[in-house]
């Protein structure tokens, strides 16, 4: 039987949690495509800062829904730092990409309940 993971309004199965975390990670990696010199021209119509802020809000909401898992501050801090780099006058893609990847890795390592 699938493990049940408590959340603010009830329980998720561990499969549901893994599915959503993978979906969030995929959303994170779009940030790389939107900002990489090799691919960003294909996404000129995307407001990357707005997408990044909305994704940060979505992931922050996930924190409270899951009753504040231990390493969540690390994920949010990486994304907030990446957003500051994105909005700066001296955008550094390498630093930005590393922070986005760090956030994605943090989501993958996220331990909630018995998952």
Largest sheet: 2 strands, antiparallel
Give the number of helices. Answer: 4
Low-confidence stretches: none
Query: How far is the first residue's CA from the last residue's CA?
Result: 13 Å
Number of distinct beta strands: 2
The gyration radius over C-alpha positions equals 15 Å
Overall body shape: elongated
The proportion of residues in beta strands is 5-15%
Main-sheet strand order equals 1-2
Topology summary:
Elements: E1 4-7, E2 10-13, H1 14-35, H2 48-65, H3 72-87, H4 93-109
Antiparallel strand pairs: 1-2
Name the features:
two-stranded antiparallel ribbon, single chain, mainly alpha, 115 residues, 63% helix, 2 strands, 4 helices
């Amino acid at each position: 039987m699938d493990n049940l993971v408590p959340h603010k309004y009830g329980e998720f199965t561990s499969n549901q949690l893994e599915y959503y975390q993978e979906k969030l990670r995929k959303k994170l990696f779009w940030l790389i495509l939107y900002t990489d010199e090799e691919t960003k021209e294909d996404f000129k119509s995307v407001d990357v800062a707005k997408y990044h802020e909305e994704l940060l809000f979505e992931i922050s909401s996930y924190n409270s829904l899951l009753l504040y898992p231990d390493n969540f501050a690390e994920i949010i801090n990486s994304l907030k730092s990446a957003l500051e780099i994105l909005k700066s006058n001296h955008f550094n893609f390498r630093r930005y990409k590393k922070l986005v990847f760090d956030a994605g890795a943090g989501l993958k390592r996220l331990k909630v309940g018995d998952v």
